[in-house]
Structure formats: structure tokens, C-alpha cells
């Protein structure tokens, strides 16, 4: 008994020491790889913008590091038994960073704006099925739905496009440069292309947080310059470093490499509308012909989680379906079965915006040549690449999908017949039915079974040929404490502190 009590006391003292070690104050100098493209959460579509807003806006609920739903501005929530309403109860005493009290009416105004077609938000789809948002009293918000939408909570928790801001910023025109939120930091300086300065929100609702006085975000697009700035001490934290430098940096005592498989994947999209690629056997042959290990090594210098389906191992929705081992002989047999024993010619379209897609295309080109498929690589600037993809002017392209949480995010918009991001022309009535059903099933196990069928069908049909899940890699000095890379790709400094 005495021994147990002693162990408890030692543990308590250790925890107390850890808490005491969390130094308050100081400015973290961070380097972003891309500048924010506007800060209006309803209008921007740039990941770089949302990763700034992670520290400025709160959502009604959020995700912890293990991707579990946890309270945020709402201390609890109730989903109706029929799934047609969700009621959120707001924390009392929450203020925006300008000192104004948060009310349920503010929340309603924010959601009405994103749902209003006149706003032109590209993120309104994340509220699919929501018919109205109301405030029966000052601390209650109710979402009424036309049909159950089990992905709604995940969207509300994980996307800062659905974050809460002071609606007055829309009226006075500051929403795109200095949105006022309830988050741990507030924007006090925004110089496009150069800098975003975040300072501690004095009204932040979570006691004692954040530890930092400020985060000084510098925009450093060149990855070599970011690496050099980290090594020299000009910056404390880097959004990303050159993938070819990761192993070297890991070996240093003055740099921490923090990596986790993310809800993001790289893949080859295939135009299914005509020619050899319209035959699923040809697409399967391509899937067998590609050595994904080599793709990951060339594209990311080995900093990749090789996969054959989209959802990473860090997700509760992971299936790890892998029918396409590297097998050139099987690829040749499928091509012969489809009538293309003599091969054919196609084009691969990567983009300069993502140099890793160019490196991947070169590996794919060599692998396909080995089974008789001749390829030409057509590399485009980002704007032209997007236009060609959108108009279907390609045979195959290589790109990535990012910021994916719910299984619906991985499949619906990309593969449902006629959906806005279904650029390949894929159409499978069985998959459509499964996707529609899975969207309204609320039981986790039943829903997972449906998505497992979706996953298997799409991988077998191969409109996308999956290569690898991106590793979310951040690099920083050892005196940066309390930061954690996350599978949802969120960058949160709320519990970060400097041990100096």
C-alpha cells in the first residue's frame, strides 16, 4: 500500500513539474510554404489560408489528435433519433478577440452566409442536407436537416470554412484580411506574400492558453531557403522542408522532424470516356504495372506511406485493400486480354505547382514502357493544368487530394456520377447507390461496411490509381514544445510553448 501511494505521489510530482515547465511568452517564428489566398473562410479555398485560420477561428466542435469529436465552442451536442436535427449548446462567457460576446445569433448569421448562394462559397456543400440553422435562445443552435447526414459533424469539426467569426467583419470589409474569431490568436498584421502576425487573444475562453505571445508567420516559398532558415535559426518552425533533406535533418540534434500519415493521397486520374483507358482491364493493367515504392521514393524521397486505396492507416475508416502488387506479367496479360498486346500511346499530365507529380510521372512513364504502353509527359503550370483537367483534355493526370476526414470526403465528390469533382467521367450505378446510402446511415459499423464496398469497387474499377498517402511533415527546433503534426493536416499552436 505504501509503495503504491509513493508511486502515485511520484507521478503527481512529475505531472506538476511538466506543467510548471510550460513557459509562457515569446514569439514563435514560423515559415509557411504558400501564402494565404485571402482569409475569408467562406470564399478562400487555399489550404494555406485555413492553416492560418486554425489558430484564429473556433468551430462548434473539433477533432483531437486521434481524430475524435470533442467539444469546442459547443460544450455538448445532441443528434435527434431520426437524424433530422442536431442541437448544439454553446459555452457561456465566450468572447471574440475584439471583446464582443459570442451569441447563438452570431453562429446563425455565419452559417446563413455560407449557405446563401449569393456568397458563392465553394464550401457550402459541406452542409449538405441542412435546411436551416436557428437560435432558440442565446446559447442554443439547432441545425434542421432534410435527411440524415452523418458526415455533418465531421465537417463541422474539421474545416475552418465552417469556423465562427464576428459577422461585423463582413459589413466593414475586414473579413478577407483580419477575420475576428474566438480562437487562441488574432491577426494583427497581414502583408500578402510576406507575413501574417498572430498575437495572443486576451479573451480566449480556455483558461491559461495559449502559452505563446505571438506567432510570426513568414512566407518562404523556396523549400531550400526554408531549410537554410531553420538550420541558421532565423525561424523556429517550418511548415515543410525539402523531402530529400528529411533524412539528413532527422540525424541532427538541433532539428525535430515530426511526421504522420495524413488524410491526403497522391494518385493518377484516368480519363474513362474513350479509347483503351475506357476498358477497366487496361486500367487494372496500369495499376499492376506501377511500382509504387519507386514512385514514393522518387516523388517524396521515401517520405510517403505507400497505399493502393485512399484512406490512411491513421483513420478509423482505413481498409488497406491492396489487390495490385507490382506485377508486370499480370499487366501484360490483362493488356492482351483487352486486345492491346501491342500496346498503345497515352499522355501523363503532371503540374509544376507540385514538383513531386513530375517526379512520379517519370517513374510511371518507365514502368508503363516496360509493359508496352508508350507515354508522353505534358507538364503544365497550375492554372492551365486545372483548366485542362476540368475540360477533360487529358489521358491521365497526377495530383493529390488533401484535408480529407470523413469517408464521404474521400469518395463522393470525386466518384459519384456527375459530381463537380468527378473529372474522370467515372459512373458506376452500384457505387452511386452505396454512396447515397452511406451518406444517411448513422450507425458506425453499418456505415463502415458500406464504405468498404465503395472502396473495393472503386479500387477494382481503377478510375483513380492510388500511389501513396502524404506524410504531414513539420520541422522545428527542439525548444519548440507542445506541437504535434496531425493526420487532419491542421496546424495548431494553441498548446505550443518555447523552452528558452
Protein architecture, described:
By secondary structure, the chain is an alpha+beta fold. The chain is built from 15 helices and 19 strands. 31% of the residues lie in helices and 22% in strands. Strands 1, 8, 9, 10, 11, 12, 13, 14, 15, 16 and 17 form an eleven-stranded mixed beta sheet that branches. Helix 8 packs antiparallel against helix 10, helix 13 runs antiparallel to helix 14 and helix 14 runs antiparallel to helix 15. The longest helix is centred in the first third of the chain and has 19 residues. The radius of gyration is 24 Å and the shape is globular. The N terminus is likely disordered.
Helices and strands in order, then pairings?
Layout: H1 2-20, E1 27-32, H2 47-53, E2 61-63, E3 69-71, E4 74-79, E5 85-90, H3 104-115, E6 130-137, E7 140-145, H4 152-158, H5 168-172, E8 185-191, E9 195-200, E10 214-219, H6 223-232, E11 237-238, H7 246-250, E12 256-270, H8 280-289, H9 292-300, E13 304-306, H10 328-337, E14 344-349, H11 355-369, E15 373-377, H12 382-391, E16 396-401, H13 407-415, H14 429-438, H15 444-461, E17 464-476, E18 480-481, E19 497-498
Parallel strand pairs: 1-10, 1-11, 14-15, 14-16
Antiparallel strand pairs: 2-3, 4-5, 5-7, 6-7, 8-9, 9-10, 11-17, 12-16, 12-17, 13-17, 18-19
Amino acid at each position: 500500500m505504501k509503495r503504491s501511494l509513493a508511486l502515485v505521489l511520484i507521478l503527481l510530482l512529475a505531472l506538476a513539474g511538466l506543467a510548471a515547465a510550460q513557459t509562457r511568452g515569446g514569439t514563435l517564428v514560423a515559415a509557411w510554404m504558400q501564402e494565404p489566398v485571402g482569409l475569408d473562410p467562406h470564399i478562400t479555398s487555399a489550404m494555406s489560408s485555413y492553416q492560418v485560420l486554425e489558430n484564429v477561428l473556433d468551430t462548434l466542435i473539433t477533432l483531437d489528435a486521434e481524430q475524435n469529436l470533442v467539444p469546442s465552442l459547443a460544450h455538448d451536442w445532441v443528434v435527434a433519433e431520426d437524424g433530422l436535427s442536431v442541437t448544439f449548446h454553446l459555452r457561456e462567457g465566450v468572447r471574440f478577440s475584439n471583446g464582443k460576446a459570442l451569441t447563438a445569433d452570431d453562429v446563425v448569421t455565419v452559417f446563413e452566409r455560407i449557405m446563401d448562394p449569393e456568397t458563392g462559397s465553394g464550401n457550402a456543400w459541406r452542409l449538405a442536407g441542412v435546411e436551416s440553422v436557428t437560435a432558440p435562445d442565446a446559447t442554443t443552435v439547432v441545425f434542421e436537416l432534410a435527411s440524415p447526414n452523418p458526415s455533418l459533424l465531421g465537417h463541422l469539426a474539421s474545416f475552418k470554412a465552417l469556423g465562427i467569426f464576428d459577422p461585423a467583419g463582413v459589413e466593414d470589409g475586414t473579413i478577407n484580411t483580419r477575420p475576428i474569431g474566438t480562437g487562441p490568436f488574432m491577426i494583427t498584421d497581414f502583408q500578402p506574400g510576406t507575413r501574417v502576425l498572430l498575437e495572443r487573444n486576451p479573451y480566449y475562453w480556455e483558461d491559461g492558453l495559449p502559452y505563446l505571445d505571438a506567432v510570426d508567420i513568414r512566407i518562404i516559398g523556396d523549400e531550400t531557403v526554408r531549410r537554410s532558415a531553420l538550420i541558421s535559426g532565423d525561424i523556429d518552425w517550418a511548415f515543410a522542408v525539402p523531402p530529400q533533406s528529411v533524412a539528413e535533418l532527422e540525424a541532427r540534434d538541433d532539428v525535430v522532424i515530426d511526421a504522420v500519415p495524413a488524410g491526403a493521397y497522391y494518385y493518377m486520374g484516368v480519363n474513362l470516356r474513350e479509347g483503351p483507358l475506357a476498358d477497366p482491364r487496361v486500367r487494372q493493367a496500369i495499376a499492376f504495372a506501377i511500382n509504387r515504392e519507386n514512385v514514393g521514393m522518387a516523388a517524396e524521397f521515401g517520405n510517403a506511406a505507400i497505399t493502393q486505396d485512399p484512406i490512411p492507416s491513421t483513420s478509423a475508416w482505413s481498409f488497406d485493400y491492396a489487390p495490385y502488387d507490382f506485377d508486370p506479367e499480370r499487366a501484360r496479360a490483362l493488356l492482351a486480354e483487352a486486345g492491346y498486346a501491342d500496346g498503345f500511346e497515352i499522355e501523363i499530365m503532371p503540374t509544376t505547382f507540385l514538383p513531386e507529380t513530375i517526379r512520379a510521372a517519370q517513374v510511371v512513364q518507365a514502368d508503363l514502357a516496360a509493359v508496352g504502353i508508350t507515354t508522353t509527359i505534358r507538364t503544365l503550370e497550375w492554372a492551365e493544368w486545372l483548366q485542362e483537367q476540368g475540360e477533360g483534355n487529358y489521358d491521365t493526370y497526377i495530383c493529390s487530394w488533401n484535408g480529407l476526414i470523413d469517408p464521404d470526403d474521400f469518395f463522393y465528390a470525386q466518384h459519384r456520377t456527375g459530381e463537380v469533382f468527378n473529372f474522370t467521367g467515372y459512373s458506376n450505378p452500384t457505387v452511386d447507390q452505396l454512396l447515397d446510402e452511406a451518406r444517411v446511415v448513422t450507425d458506425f459499423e453499418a456505415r463502415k461496411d458500406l464504405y468498404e464496398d465503395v472502396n473495393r469497387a472503386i479500387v477494382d474499377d481503377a478510375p483513380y490509381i492510388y500511389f501513396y498517402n502524404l506524410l504531414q511533415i513539420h520541422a522545428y527546433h527542439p525548444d519548440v514544445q507542445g506541437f504535434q503534426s496531425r493526420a487532419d493536416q491542421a496546424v495548431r499552436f494553441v498548446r505550443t510553448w518555447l523552452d528558452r
